[in-house]
């Protein structure tokens, strides 16, 4: 037998190692070993990793391409990437793929620019029980449908998980569940930049202090990019925590999208030692203007935040930023914020109902403020603050106590926001043990049926007209901030 024939047979035998059953095993089972890398999978079946793998080249160690019904099982084996541009697993143009039970680590000597897993133009892909470390993206999802990340741990990646695309709405119906994110070295742990139909559930997000990190999770991206818009997102039963040395980190940032629900979420954020004007917050609802397609959502609108607690010294607990529209904050609590428990800043057509805000605000200037902060007047901080030209909002049935400035405060115009806060409804609130009870410095706001008692001072400012608070239509105006709705027949509810 000539050497050429022997070589051909050896090559054929090596292929059997990957693509054929061995030793009488199940005919749909295949086995991957170190010598097979890089490997391309195009056939259906279950693929087992037989040993710990080390991949020293760029590109993907394992590629699943043009395949259907593939399951890749690591059997608690590790895949170590020794090249900064390496990707552990690439799933492309495939469907019904499951990857489970492994660890993907980039151990290259320079910062990674590769991915643990890259999913492109694929449908129904499950990533389960993985530990993914030290990659640029732990998982990068592009133009895919039905991607589920379940029971994973992401740590020390640039960004743990990113959903991106080049077409609006191209990522659809994806989910992150029972997954832990920590210590991303980039801007965030999870970045759902472009997605329609997205669920985060029973997951945790935290930081150990990278100076590049700006928030723990973000929905929606740069408003100048038409591909960065999210829609129809649900965040539920999850936690967001930052107690690190980097105090410039926000919790959940909801930015540039349409349709979101945040329910039963716990957020603990520490922004102490940062400038108050930055308004860093536990939940920041942002906005922006798309310069590409004006018909697209250019701000965060149509949302519900419910049954959620923001605690710790975040600058603001909840911060619907300028341009936020049609958001309801219901049955929530904010406590311990450095500034406002709930800050409606340039917000319209929104509702705060049934919430409790306690112990928010800062009485005197902290010693740890940076020298380049804008001048801030102390005391500062109310339970609920309506400011920066907020219009047509309703503040209903809330309890606000023990806040440094006011229970409910409607701000006066400022040099940066010269138009008044107007046409807001403040009704059925109970405010007590604050400096002021309800303070209305706006125009044409309706303040009815509230109870304000045991507040320290009445508000007086000759420069602002109609500073008194009317408690009930048809009743005399009550001067000052302590109003007892049950005091007389006229005020009785």
Q: Could you characterize what this model shows?
A:
With 493 residues, the chain is mainly beta. It has a single domain (36-453), classed as Pectate Lyase C-like (3 Solenoid), CATH 2.160.20. The chain has 1 helix and 41 strands. An 11-stranded parallel sheet has the order 2-5-7-9-11-14-17-20-22-24-27, with no helix packed on it.
Outline of the structure:
The chain has 493 residues and is mostly beta strands.
- Low-pLDDT residue spans: 3-25, 459-470, 484-493
Known CATH architecture: 3 Solenoid
CATH class: Mainly Beta
Helical percent range? under 10%
Measured distance between first and last alpha carbons:
103 Å
User: Averaging pLDDT over every residue, what do you get?
Assistant: 86
CATH topology: Pectate Lyase C-like
Look at the structure and name the CATH superfamily.
Single-stranded right-handed beta-helix, Pectin lyase-like
Question: Approximately how much beta-strand content do the residues carry?
Answer: over 45%
The geometry reads as elongated
Strand order of the largest sheet: 2-5-7-9-11-14-17-20-22-24-27
Query: What is the domain total for the residues?
Result: 1
Q: How many individual helices?
A: 1
Radius of gyration, taken over Cα atoms and rounded to an integer in Å: 28 Å
Biggest pleated sheet: 11 strands, parallel
Kindly state the number of beta strands.
41
Class from secondary-structure proportions: mainly beta
């Amino acid at each position: 037998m000539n050497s050429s024939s022997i070589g051909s047979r050896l090559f054929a035998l090596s292929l059997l190692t990957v693509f054929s059953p061995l030793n009488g095993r199940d005919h749909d089972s295949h086995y991957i070993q170190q010598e097979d890398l890089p490997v391309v999978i195009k056939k259906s079946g279950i693929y087992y990793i037989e040993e710990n793998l080390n991949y020293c080249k760029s590109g993907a160690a394992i590629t699943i391409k043009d395949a259907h019904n593939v399951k890749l099982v690591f059997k608690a084996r590790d895949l170590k990437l020794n090249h900064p541009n390496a990707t552990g697993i690439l799933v492309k143009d495939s469907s019904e793929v499951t990857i489970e039970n492994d660890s993907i680590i980039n151990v290259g000597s320079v910062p990674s620019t590769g991915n643990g897993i890259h999913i492109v133009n694929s449908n129904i892909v499950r990533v389960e029980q993985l530990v993914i470390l030290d990659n640029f993206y732990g998982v990068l999802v592009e133009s895919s449908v039905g991607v589920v990340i379940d029971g994973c741990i992401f740590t020390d990646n640039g960004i743990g998980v990113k959903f991106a695309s080049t077409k609006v709405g191209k990522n659809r119906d994806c989910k992150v569940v029972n997954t832990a994110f920590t210590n991303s070295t980039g801007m965030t742990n999870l970045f759902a930049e472009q997605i329609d139909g997205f669920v985060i559930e029973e997951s945790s997000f935290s930081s150990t202090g990278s100076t590049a990190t700006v928030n723990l999770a973000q929905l929606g991206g740069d408003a100048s990019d038409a591909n960065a818009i999210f829609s129809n997102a649900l965040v539920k039963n999850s936690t967001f925590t930052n107690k690190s040395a980097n105090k410039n980190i926000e919790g959940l940032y909801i930015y540039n999208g349409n349709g979101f629900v945040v329910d039963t979420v716990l957020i603990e954020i520490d922004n102490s030692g940062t400038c108050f004007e930055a308004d860093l917050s536990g939940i920041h609802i942002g906005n922006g203007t798309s310069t590409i397609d004006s018909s697209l959502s250019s701000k965060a609108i149509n949302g519900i935040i419910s049954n959620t607690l923001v605690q710790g010294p975040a600058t603001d607990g909840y911060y619907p930023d300028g341009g936020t529209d049609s958001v309801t904050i219901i049955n929530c609590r904010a406590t311990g914020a450095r500034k406002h428990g709930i800050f409606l800043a340039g917000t319209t057509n929104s509702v705060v109902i049934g919430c409790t805000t306690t112990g928010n605000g800062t009485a005197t200037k902290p010693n740890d403020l940076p020298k380049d902060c804008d001048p801030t007047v102390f005391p500062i901080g109310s339970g609920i603050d309506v400011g920066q030209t907020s219009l047509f909002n309703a503040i209903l049935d809330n309890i606000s106590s023990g806040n440094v400035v006011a229970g409910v405060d409607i701000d006066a115009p400022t040099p940066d926001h010269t138009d008044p806060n107007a046409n807001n409804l403040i009704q059925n609130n109970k405010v007590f043990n604050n400096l002021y009870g309800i303070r209305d410095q706006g125009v044409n706001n309706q303040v009815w049926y509230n109870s304000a008692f045991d507040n320290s001072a009445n508000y007086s400012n000759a420069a602002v007209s109609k500073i008194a608070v009317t408690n009930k239509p048809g009743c005399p105006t009550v001067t000052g901030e302590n109003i007892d709705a049950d005091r007389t027949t006229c005020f009785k509810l």
